[in-house]
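Researcher: Structure for this, please.
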Amino acid sequence: MAEILIKDEDLSGLKGKVVVLTGGSSGIGLATVDLLLSLGASVVSGDINPPPSEAPGLLFVKTDVSKWEDLRALFKKAKEHHGRIDSVFANAGIGPRANYLALETDDQGELKEPSHELLDIGLRGLINTACLALHYMKEQPEGGSIVLMGSSTGLQPLRAVDYSTAKHGVLGFGRGLARLAEIAGLPIRINTLTPSWTTSNVLPGLEDLMKGISHVPQPAVVVARAAAYLMNDASRQGNVVYVADGKYKEIEKTVLYPAYETILGQGNPSDDDVLKRLLEEAAK
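Model: Predicted structure, token format:
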């Protein structure tokens, strides 16, 4: 795996940039807001809750990412206020909600559908955030950068199934969208973060629970630095960056795709290659 070293000077290019992010009032999002402001960036934060304090350079827009109209208003406000959007961090998320092994019943004793709240926020909301980012950045000759909040849980089996499903979806969406943006010739970079256990509000009382099992989560600012780095480094496109124990490793080009190529076998076309030929054939 290719380890990434992030130095302070690697983030200096964010001064004067305009960043839109979701989930910026707590956890990793809040740490990213604080970092970006300290670097001289202007930040537009969309969250269902207000930030803990006001700060110069920060514009808060109350946003429920599961609602398209809220996200649309967030981006419209950012564009109206700053005239451009340089980077977007699709970060908002919640902890596990669904119980797939024991269905609940309603007042009439009828079985209720499992909760899709986490999927609506952590996957559908993220997809919609990225689509709006692409819409606004396509209008800018300089393009922009999109960072997607995935998780290391999207790389492994996890007993919190709705959370695992969302993060597996983020991984697939990010990898596919980065390829599609390249094919379309868009000057927009799309990268995905997959951090391991990090101090956040996704699980209530996480820090105390972690102390009880003698496991120390990494501080949120560690992930915030990775998000800022991916926004700033113009060479990073289609990367998946694993963040654990304060270290950063690029795994798309060094682990994930090479593993697929090994399974595929020498001389066999990839599914994406076949799809390209099918599309070309259909266009004749």
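Researcher: Any notable elements?
Model: Residues 2-250 form a domain with the Rossmann fold fold (CATH 3.40.50.720). DSSP finds eight helices and nine strands in the chain.
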